[in-house]
Amino acid sequence: MHTAPLPPASSGIRLDPDINICQTDLPLDWYQAEFKPYAEEYMRLPDRKPGTVLPWLDKYAGPALEHFGDSLLLVAHFYMGGEIVKLVERYGGAVSDSYQLALQAARNPHKKVIVESAVHFMAESIAILANPDQSVWITNPKAGCTMEMLAKDYMVEPVAEQLIERYGDDLTVIAYMNTGGRIKALAGRTGGAVCTSSNAPKVVEWARRQGKKILFVPDQHLGRNTAYKLGMDLSKVVALPDPQVARGAIKLSDKTIEGGLASLDRAEMILWGSYCGVHTVFSPAQVNYWRERGYTVLVHPESKLEVVQAADGSGSTNFLWEAVMKAAPGAKLAIGTEGHFVKNAREQGRQRGVEVVHLADIPDPAFHSMGCGCATMSRNDPPHLAGLLDLLRQGKAPAINRVYAGDVVDEQSGALDRKGDSERAVLVRHARAALQRMIDITEAK
Ligand code: SF4
Fold it and tell me: Rounded to the nearest whole angstrom, what is the distance from the C-alpha of residue 343 to the centroid of ligand 1?
C-alpha cells in the first residue's frame, strides 16, 4: 500500500469526509474485463464516503504517480461527479470546461501521459492538439456525449456532401466543441471553425461576414440561441430532421425537410438536429417558478430558446461558475445546467452565503420536475480511474483506452474505428485548422 503524502488539492474545493459519494455503481458485467477486479474491490468497500474511497484510490494512484512522476497529468470536466472532481484535484490534476481541457496537452508539453475523466470527444480534442510524444487516455472509452453520439461522421458527412453539392464553396461547417475529431476536420476542410458555447456568436458572425451559408453541428439549440443573440431572422434558421431518424444519413428532399428544399435555399444557418438530454428538460414554467420566489435564473445555451428568453441570463459553464463565485452574499441563484455542476456550485456558494438551486429541482409535485446529471460523463467512476492508473503503471492498459484523433467508439459495444497514421495526419491538420480559426476569431480585437 502506498503511504506517501498526497499532493494538496489545487483549487480550494474542500474535502469533506461527511459528504457521501453519489456515484451509482455500474453493473459488473458492464466493465471492460481488465477493469472488473477494480470494480469488484470498489463494490466491497463498506461505504462510498471520501474517507473510504480516497485511501482506496490512493492504493493505485500513489504508485502510478511515483512511477510516472511529473509526466502524469490527470484531468476532469466540471460535470464529473463531485467525488471524481475531488479525487482528481487531490492527485494534483486539472478540472475545467471542454475548451480548457482541449488545451491541456499543448499547454503542458512536459506532461507525457494524460488521463482524462470526462466524455470521449473531450479526450479526443486533447489528442488533436497533443504533441507526438504525449499519450492521451480516457478512463472509460464508452463515456460518450449524447449530442455527439447523434452527430457521428457517418451521419453528418453524407448530409454535408449533399449541401456542398447544392451550395458549393458558399457552405461552411461550424463544429461545436461537442463533436468528434472527424467533424472538426470537416469544419476545417470547408473553411469553417470550431466554436464553444461562449464564443459561438463571434464564430457565427465571422462566417456571416463572409456571406457563408452555415451548417451548424451538432446542437440545434446552441445554434438557434446564437442566431437569436445575433438578431438573425429565425425564419432563415432551419433545423434538419431528428438524427435518430435514419441515423442521420437522410436524403435531402422536399419530403424530408420542413418547408422543402426552398427553405434550405433561403436559410442563413442550417442546424444539425442534435440536442443534449440534460439541458432540454428545462421549461419557461420552471424559470417563472424561481423568479417569482426572488431567484436570478441563469441557464446554459444548450437549453431551448424559450427557456433562454425567459431566463435572466445565459452562458457557458465558465460563465455560470463565475456568476456563482462573484455573487454577493445573500444572493439566490437558480442554475439551469448539468446536475453535478450545480451540486459543486451549491457547495461553493454555501461557503459564501450564496444560495444555489438547480432550475429543475422544484419542490412542488405538480411540476414532476427534477434536475439530472450527465449520465454518460458519469460512466467514468472511481474503479475506472483506479484501474486505468494501475494498468498504465504496469504497461497493461487496453489499447481502446488510448485516445487518438479520429477515433470513433460505439458507446454500446465498445467497438473502435481507428484511422491509420497517414489518414490521421490529414484529419489532425484539418481539425487543428478549425480550432486555430476559432482561437484567431475569438482573440481578434
Ligand atoms: S451534459 Fe449533455 S452536452 Fe454535456 S457532455 Fe453530457 S450529454 Fe454532452
Answer: 16
Residues 166 and 266 in one domain: yes
Nearest to 238 by CA among 269, 207, 275: 269
Q: Are residues 335 and 270 in the same domain?
A: no
pLDDT-based confidence at residue 18 (cuts at 50, 70, 90): very low
Nearest CA, atom 5, ligand 1: 145
Residues 288 and 279: their CA atoms lie apart, in Å, by 17
Residues 138 and 153 in one domain: no
Ligand 1 mutation target, pool 79, 275, 320, most atoms within 8 A of CB: 79
Pocket of ligand 1 (CB under 6 A): 79, 119, 145-147, 178, 276, 278-279, 302, 338, 374, 376-377
What is the distance in A from the centroid of ligand 1 to the CA of 374?
6
* 160: in domain: yes
The reported pLDDT for the residue numbered 86 is: 78
Task: Report the separation in Å between the CA atom of 424 and the middle of ligand 1, taken as the mean of its atom positions.
Answer: 26
Does a structural domain hold residue 413? no
Q: What is the dihedral of CA 316, 245, 228, 377, to 10 degrees?
A: 0
Residue 114's H or E segment, with its range, is strand 113-117
> Could you tell me if 132 and 231 lie in one domain?
no
State the pTM of this model: 0.91
Q: Write out the residue range of the structural domain in which residue 292 sits.
A: 284-367
Strands (E), 146-288: 171-176, 193-195, 213-217, 237-239, 269-271
Give the domain CATH number at 177: 3.40.50.10800
pLDDT digit string, tens, across residues 303-337: 999 999 999 999 999 899 999 999 999 999 999 99
**Tell me: the pLDDT tens digits for 255-274?**
999 999 999 999 999 999 99
For the cut 60, the answer to whether the pLDDT of residue 53 exceeds it is yes
CA of 377 to the centre of ligand 1 (A): 7
Task: Output the CA 209–ligand 1 centroid distance in Å.
Answer: 30
Residue 378 has pLDDT above 90, yes or no: no
> Domain check: are 111 and 212 in the same one?
no
Atom of ligand 1 nearest to the CA of 338: 1
